[in-house]
Amino acid sequence: MAKQEKLIVEGTIIEALPNTTFRVELDNGHQLLAHLSGKMRKYYIRVLLGDRVRVELTPYDPNRGRIVYRYRTPQSAR
After folding, report:
1. Sequential pLDDT tens for the chain (78 residues)
2. Is 55 exposed, middle or buried (CB count within 10 Å of its CB: 0-12, 13-18, 19+)?
3. Out of 2.40.50.140, 3.40.50.1000, 2.40.110.10, 3.50.50.60, which CATH number does the structure's domain 3-70 have?
4. Beta-carbon-side half-sphere exposure of residue 56 (alpha carbons within 13 Å)
5. Domain spans in the chain, listed from the N-terminal domain onward
6. Type and span of the H or E element at 15
7. Is 27 exposed, middle or buried (0-12, 13-18, 19+ CB in 10 A)?
């Protein structure tokens, strides 16, 4: 699949499911199932409830996606 066919959207993790699968609510209110990408699994990137993520969607199934990036949350002042 060519890169231009993938749709990139942003959302928030609302539920953690087994096997590194998550329910994500997009900014437009749509909910979908998304799994972690291979590189995020390889480097043990931890994704928790409430995290902002970037999700890749294919034009074939808009209800499933792949989490490709977790945005950093601002750290509280120490």
Report:
1. 566 789 999 999 999 999 999 999 999 999 999 999 999 999 999 999 999 999 999 999 999 999 999 999 876 555
2. buried
3. 2.40.50.140
4. 15
5. 3-70
6. strand 7-17
7. exposed
Quote the CA–CA distance of 62 and 32 in Å, as a whole number: 8
Do you know the residue count of the chain? 78
Short-list 46, 43, 58, 47, CA closest to 11: 47
Instruction: Indicate the pTM of the whole model.
Output: 0.87
